Amino acid sequence: MSLNVIPAIDLRGGKVVRLKQGDYAQQTTYEADPREVAQRYAAAGAQWLHLVDLDGARSGSLDNLAVIESIAADGMRIQAGGGVRNEDDLARLFSAGVSRVVLGSVAIRDPELVADWLTRYGAEQLTIALDTRQVDGRWALPSAGWTEMETRTLDELAPWYAGKGARHLLCTDIDRDGMLAGFNLDLYRHLAETVPHLAVQASGGVRSLDDIRAAREAGAQGVILGRALLEARFTIEEALAC
C-alpha cells in the first residue's frame, strides 16, 4: 500500500511553532520562515503540505490566512485548517489556493453541515479531522484547538462520516502530539478495522523512519510529519523513500 508522506507546518502569529500535546503554553518557536520551510519541502519532492492555523483553531477566525496564501502561491498542494467554522471560511481558503480544507471543530460540532459540504464540494476537497485522546476508556474528541471536550466520540463520528461519503480522515492522538513518542499504532489499527474505506492520515509523535513504516503497516495511508523534520531527526527525502 502506498503512503502519502505529508510534511506539516503549524502557524502561530505568522511563525513556525510546535505545541506539546496541544498545549498553547508549551510552545516551541522555530526561527525558520514558513514559506522558506515549505519551499524546502517542495524542492525535496513532497507533493503535499499540511498547514495548521493554531491561532485560528482557538479563535475561530483564519488568523494566518495571508501566510497560507503566500505559501500556496508557490504551487504546492496544500491541506490546511484551523478556524474553519462556516462556508465563508471554506471559500476564503479555497480562494487562497488551498487544495483540501481540514475540518476539525465544525466536523465534531455540526456533522450535518459538514455532510452537506461533502456532497457539494466533493470528498477530495475536504479532510475530516477527528483528533482524539483516551478518556475513561473511550476515544474522546476535544475541539477548539483541543481546549474544549465534546460529547461525541471517535467511534461514533468516524463511521458516520464514512457513511456520508468522506474519503480523508486525519486522526491525531493528542497525548502523543509533539512528544516524539511514536505513533499510537493501536489507534490506526482500530480505524483500519472500523472505517476501512477512509484514507486515514496518522499524526502525532513520529520520531523515526521506523515509525513511518509502522504506521503504513497499521493501515494508515498518510503520515503527517512535524517536529521530527524541524529538528532534523531525519530528512524529508528519507521519509519520502519509506
**Total number of helical segments?**
11
Distance between the termini: 12 Å
Radius of gyration: 16 Å
* Topology as a string of helices (H) and strands (E): EEEHEHHEHEHHEEEEHEHEHEHH
Shape: globular
Task: List low-pLDDT spans.
Answer: none
Strand content: 25-35%
Computed structural class: alpha/beta
Question: Strand count, sense and closure of the main sheet?
Answer: 8 strands, parallel, barrel
The order of strands across the largest sheet is 1-4-5-6-7-11-12-13
Task: Specify the helix fraction band.
Answer: 25-40%
Q: What is the count of β-strands? A: 13
Which oligomeric form is depicted?
Answer: single chain
User: Overall pLDDT, averaged?
Assistant: 94
Characterise this structure.
The protein has helices at residues 34-43, 54-59, 65-72, 87-95, 105-109, 111-121, 154-163, 185-194, 209-217, 227-230, 236-240, and strands at residues 4-12, 15-20, 23-30, 48-53, 77-81, 100-103, 126-129, 133-135, 138-143, 148-153, 168-172, 199-203, 222-225. With 242 residues, the chain is of the alpha/beta class. An eight-stranded parallel β-barrel has the order 1-4-5-6-7-11-12-13, surrounded by six helices. It is globular. The relative contact order is 0.16.
Structure summary:
The chain is an alpha/beta fold. The chain is built from eleven helices and 13 strands.
